[in-house]
Write a structure and sequence with these properties.
363 residues; alpha+beta; Deoxyribonuclease I, Chain A; 2 domains; five-stranded mixed beta sheet; Endo/exonu/phosph_ase_sf; exonuclease; transmembrane; hydrolase
Amino acid sequence: MTRWRRWGRRALAALATLAILLSFLPAWQTDRWWVRQWDYPRLQVAAVLLVILPLLFWAAYRRTAGFWALTAGSAAALAWQVTHFVAYLPPYPRQVASTDRCAPGETISLLNANVLQTNRDYDAVLQLVAAKQPDILLALETGPDWARAMVPLKKAYPYRLVEPVPSTYGMMLFSKLPMRGEVRNLLQPAVPSAWTQVQLRGGQWIDFYALHPEPPWPGDDSGERDAELLTVGKQVRAKGRAAIVMGDLNDVAWSYTSRLFKRVAGMHDPRVGRGFYPTFNANYPLLRWPLDHLFVSPHFKVMQVDLLKDVGSDHLPIYFKLCLTDRAGEREVAPAVGPATAAEANEEIGEGRQESHEENRGE
């Protein structure tokens, strides 16, 4: 065996070992940023494992115990990764039913756009809004410059909640439909969320929440993000009305927190059975995952989901059109939350609030 082949085998073994470790690392239930980050690229790590497996057979001239251990570990890691995202492949049953017919007064269209605060292509966003004509526009990472650039929308969108903070957590919510509500800072003074009600053209009021929590990042774990999402989930469950949660959640749909949120809130994900619709990073097609989300209560059906063209941001905009069903007047119809799920959510919220308290005190 040549020296280069030996080095190649060692490199392949090291890569397989790393892929196995990174696959199972997020199973550790911790808020540590360097663990939670590996919830994101499950599809990419699975692709690496899919390449590694045949290479292991090709590179190994002897079937040693080490070879079989590495092969079995790679196969198990690949299977583990697939279990997290298989529900988003089109053959999988849809979690939210589709419909082509809906009474005009029961439809609502929504556009979520993280515009990137440093992006100056204001016209691209304005042209996109003009083309799609959403009933609700949620623009995120909107600082004072973006607030000035969005002034032309005021006539078409008479109902607004605007919080153009100078950080990357500015939020602007525009609505053609009657809207009432407020901006809240649940955990951090510079991280707003919108808690509103929107009246459809048929007269029905629905709850609408817009979120953009902080991501897990060096020096900032995921506790606050998780607590904000789960706090809203408990609110949705408590009210039991038709509800929509939308925003850049800085989390993927298959993460532990997102799945816990859906159980707590009794909400569904339109992506399930339809596709990944990856919105981030717009600049790297092979390194994208779905960070921008819309969740709905069981009172809705889906008419349209579109991943839209780049507007100069690192996120792609995403558009939804929904139909409010005849169950709109009912209280929550999702399965009841079990005591274990409720306890999990309360623990996560408590940990996130403690993390926020320590951060605000500078500890």
